[in-house]
Amino acid sequence: MLVFRLIFLRHGETIGERPGHAFPAVRHATDFERVARRIRGRTREKIAGLIGEGSMMLKKLLVGALGLALCGVAMAADWNLQPAASKLAEDIHWLHEAVMVLVVILFVGVFGFMFWSCYAHRKSVGHKASQFHENTTVEVIWTVIPAIILVLIAWPVTKVVIAQKDTSQADLTIKVTGIQWKWAYDYLKGEGEGISFVSTLATPRAQIEGREPKGEHYLLEVDNELVVPVGKKVRMLTTAADVIHSWWVPVFGAKQDAIPGFIRDIWFTPTKTGTFRSQCVELCGKDHGFMPIVVRVVSQDEYTKWVGAQKTLLAKAAEDETKTYALAELKARGEKVYAANCVACHQASGKGTPPVFPPLDGSKVVLGPKDAQIDTVLHGRTNTAMQSFARLGNVELAAVITFTRNNWGNSTGEAVQPADIKARRK
Ligand code: HEC
Ligand SMILES: [Cu+2]
Question: 395 C-alpha to center of ligand 1: Å?
Answer without folding.
Answer: 19
